Amino acid sequence: MKANNILILIAEAVFMLVSGMAIDVLFTIVSSSQLCIQCSCWLVANI
Question: Residue 2: what pLDDT?
């Protein structure tokens, strides 16, 4: 029973780590796309 609990804890930790990384990646993509949009707007405004 105790080994089972440890496995569940490890699985939860891995899941939290993976979902946290996924959120970081999504956030990075969103931030960089916003930056691209700002650069594009700036270029268009200056042409």
Answer: 82
